[in-house]
Amino acid sequence: MTDISTGLYAQGAILAALFRRHRTGRGTKIDCNLLSTQVANLVNLGSNFLNAGTVPRRWGTAHESIVPYQGFQTEDGQNLIVGAGSDEQFISLCRRMAVDYYENEKFASNKARVANRVELIKLLASRFAEETLEEWLARFATAKFPFGPVNTFAQVFADPQVRHNDMVSEVDHKKAGRVRLLNNPVTFKDCNLAPRLPPPLLGEHTDAVLREYLKFDDNSLSDLRSSGVIS
What we know:
By secondary structure, the protein is mainly alpha-helical. Helix content is 45%, strand content 11%. It is built from eleven helices and five strands, in the order αααββααααβααββαα. Strands 1-2-3 form a three-stranded antiparallel beta sheet, with helices on one face. Helix 1 packs across helix 2 (34-40). The relative contact order is 0.07.
């Protein structure tokens, strides 16, 4: 995730720098590194430590300061992530689960639910274990709180919404034949961002890149190749 996040930060920084250059005529130097990105990714946990001295602990799938917001096992042994980010969402969750825990003062507010986390989670876990994943998904189908199954890879790519989002492309590879690739999760109304080319072979585009961007001719490429600089 640190590698991916650093790339995303770099992308935003490059676009911002280009926009700045367009407005001011001045370029700039951008520096992105994995360490700073990882520290920035501490977000609320980092802020809690810096301002309150709170050292975060491991919560598994649970959220440190929002309860309930974690995974639960269903009757058929599958797992469901459910989050109630507000008191209203908690009430909605309870009603859809056919329980009245929200009427208990110990669970009436998020502050109270955090303080009584162990007791509440035990109650919810027991209730979730009474029905299958599909039954819970049906109960929550129109809910306004976040929820979703913990899928296997096969379930991810078979998911109707994933298929509707067109997240997989197929291209021809010189050695591997027909290969499937993940699509860009961003879509433009008037532009297709799906992969047009397969992953290149080692050195496949070396000559083309050196010719186009550095204007190397055949003799220059031959010299580089004979000296072992390129293969």
